[in-house]
Amino acid sequence: MRIDLHSHSSVSDGSQPPADVVRRAHAAGVDVLALTDHDTVAGHAEAVRALPPGMTLIRGMELSCRLGGRSLHLLAYLFDPAEPELAAERRRIREDRARRARGMVERLERLGAPVTWEMVQRVTGDSVPGRPHIARAMVEAGVIAGMDEAFTREWIGAGGRAYVPRYALDAVMAVGLVREAGGVPVVAHPRASRRGYLFTDEEIARLAGAGLGGIEADHPDHTEADRAHLRGLAADLGLFTTGASDDHGEATGHRLGAETTSAEAYEALLAQATGAVPDIG
């Protein structure tokens, strides 16, 4: 089986609607796909309706967290979306994302960049606004040549001239909330240093003590040395390791299925989930 446990649709910051993500994954030979949009479950129903016969969807999300004063992303799989505490936190994060996006657009305007909120809304559509949407609007306005240029101190990178901080869950608390909702928490790309995600073994061990289920080891932004180290750390902590494309459509070059999870790790994930079951086409 080809199992890809991290993907995004236009419900958050991917470029394709959920149904298209499912179709592209199927065309790429993916048998099991997790749809993990940022802080929302809004794309799940559409993705399920688009499942071809025999393909499996894992309902998930990528939860915005903070650990040690830094942004950490937590993948949550097969949780009960109606669990009230986790649902309330999702709502709070989404509402703050909109506040933050407006604030960054205002700062860009003060810096002389011809980016308006209306432009960002056209890019965002009905999804949760985020920095990638602002970056796309900046490219369309001719402020920058490519999206990567936006994520610097010159513009909307951490600490940048137009950067605005946002609300994020304490990561240890988030692990507990996902578990209480019957879900399985996995730390996303913990060694993607190019993107600002670099967490120590001790920090990951702290999450493991709170109930973390796994570590995303095989990720496009991880080196071979990172992957080997994370596999060893997971074995020491009694965690499973996953692999995933973290596909965002056009922004990441349509790479669904580029990294995959082993059948053994997938079975370990399913064994721990009590909040929901996979959807099978």
TrEMBL record:
SUPFAM superfamilies: PHP domain-like (SSF89550). Coiled coil: none annotated. It comes from the Bacteria. Residues 1-20 are annotated as: Disordered. Residues 3-67 form the Polymerase/histidinol phosphatase N-terminal domain. PANTHER family: EXONUCLEASE, POLYMERASE_HISTIDINOL PHOSPHATASE N-TERMINAL DOMAIN-CONTAINING PROTEIN. InterPro entries: PHP_dom, PHP_domain, Pol/His_phosphatase_N, Pol/histidinol_Pase-like. This is PHP domain-containing protein. It comes from Actinoallomurus vinaceus.
